[in-house]
Amino acid sequence: MSKNLRQIPITCSGHTRPVVDLRFSDITPYSYFIISACKDGLPMLREGDTGDWVGTFVGHKGAVWGATINKEATRAATGAADFTAKLWDAKSGVEIHSFSHRHIVKSVDFSSDTNHLVTGCNDKNLRLFDLENYATDPKVFSGHNSNIKKCILAEGSKKIISISDDKTLRVWDTVSNNQITQLNFDDIPTSIEQSRDGKMLILSHGKSVELYDLEKLEKVKFFSIPSVISAVSISPDKSLFVCGSENFTLYKYSIETGAEIESFKGHFGPVHCIQFSPDGEVYASGSEDGTLRLWQNTIGKTYGLWKLIDSEETNNINAVS
Fold it and tell me: What tens-digit pLDDT sequence spans the chain (321 residues)?
């Protein structure tokens, strides 16, 4: 009797409200980790391959909209509706510092060396903080005409890339503090992510996913998706991307051919965030339904907790046979 290969996600419960952001660390000597931001105000850290809970960062007094973890999984940062961004010791869960803002902080991102933190705020400004000197005033980048949805640091900390409800993507030079590039869209951009090698940028807006050369910010690929896309992530080897939609569906596409590889539903609400693990074996999604779910990139492969799932299914098959 052959096995019916289907997605069997690991559902990570614990949050009590919508999960709106997530981020994987790189692979560390202790595996890799994932942080999730939730409107319940309690961002959580988990083991990335199993979803096992590691700890909760306690200190925000409002919904947490953005979360990130550095490559080494030693530092975490969060942005929240209490008008603060917080820096955390990811090993102990202790708050290291709190950065005050004038409005809700929607997005946070570390530089590759963890020496800087960028924040995107509902006051329409981006701020770049020096994490080696907390007393230093942040550099402020103004120009967006509406709320900032997402911001990332690229080329170390030389560039900030941001998307906003004003239907633009903007690139900022952190040395001169000047805006150097602007892309305009017919729809509000919903998600941006740079590839793990820092060479490509993937972006979603409306029912479209676009791939850009990050250095030149030139579009190299365009993909039309059946539903409005809320989040997108590119695989570490840049061969695939996954995206989540407002109609509860996850999609996977080949970047080379543009073909849809698979699509399926698993969440009971719109998907708000998605990202590939650093080894490409797993991708995680967070949803309005309050759960974080882990999905296999290669369905049926023995990996992490899927070893137990494989074993249980095999026993059931043998019993039926």
Answer: 234 578 889 999 899 999 999 999 999 998 999 999 999 999 999 999 999 999 999 999 999 999 999 999 999 999 999 999 999 999 999 999 999 999 999 999 999 999 999 999 999 999 999 999 998 999 999 999 999 999 999 998 999 999 999 999 999 999 999 999 999 999 999 999 999 999 999 999 999 999 999 999 999 999 999 999 999 999 999 999 999 998 889 999 999 999 999 988 888 999 999 999 999 999 999 999 999 999 999 988 999 888 765 544 434 333 333
9 within domain boundaries: no
Biggest CA pair distance of the chain: 70
- Per the structure, the count of domains in the chain is 1
Q: Report yes or no on 185 lying in a domain.
A: yes
Q: Is residue 13 part of a domain?
A: no
Residue 126 lies in a domain: yes
| CA distances to 20, 39, 221, 312 from 292, in Å | 10, 13, 29, 23
| Owning domain of residue 181 | 21-320
Order of strands across the sheet that contains 53-56: 19-24, 33-38, 44-47, 53-56
